[in-house]
Design a protein that fits this description.
It is built from seven helices and three strands, in the order ααβααββααα. It is mainly α and 152 residues long. The protein has two domains: 102 residues, Arc Repressor Mutant, subunit A (Orthogonal Bundle), CATH 1.10.10; 29 residues, no CATH class. Helix 2 crosses helix 5. The longest helix is centred in the first third of the chain and has 23 residues.
């Protein structure tokens, strides 16, 4: 929200809220990705799950959930669907049967070639250095919000 000098409580508009700007930008990203993801047959959440596995294969479900900021009750159906599509496999960790490990299949790794053609940097209208700056600022914002919720 703008500082108190810029807007009095009686004049606060929805567009004054930072949370709404981030939320609506997220919706716009979803719309921009939609035609590309439809071509791949994936949802955005399925796509970022695969990206996380391209980055580090053979992760535990809990570690993957932390990386994606997803609870297991949200992540598990995504993993089941991606497994049914032939992009990944889930197996119990032989060293710790309580853990389930997730790995990409050959088909899941090949999807990377198509997936990396999806570049929305240009669609944002931001110069590469501005894009990096905004991305870094949003990561910092997320980190600060998460830290503010943690109790000592």
């Amino acid at each position: 929200m703008k500082n108190k000098d810029q807007a009095s409580p009686a004049n606060v508009m929805l567009s004054d809220f930072l949370c709404f700007a981030v939320y609506s930008a997220n919706l716009a990203f979803g719309k921009a990705y939609k035609p590309i993801l439809e071509e791949l047959g994936l949802t955005y959440t399925q796509y970022i799950t695969i990206i996380a596995l391209w980055e580090e294969d053979n992760q535990t479900v809990s570690g993957l959930g932390e990386k994606l900021f997803l609870e297991s009750n949200t992540l598990t159906p995504i993993l089941k669907k991606l497994e049914a599509m032939g992009y990944l496999e889930r197996q119990r960790d032989p060293q710790d049967e309580r853990q389930v490990r997730v790995s990409l299949t050959k088909t899941g790794r090949r999807l990377r070639e198509k997936g990396f053609k999806m570049d929305l940097v240009e669609a944002t209208g931001l110069a590469p250095e501005e894009f990096a700056k905004v991305q870094k600022a949003i990561v910092t914002l997320r980190k600060n919000l998460i830290e503010s919720l943690q109790t000592d």
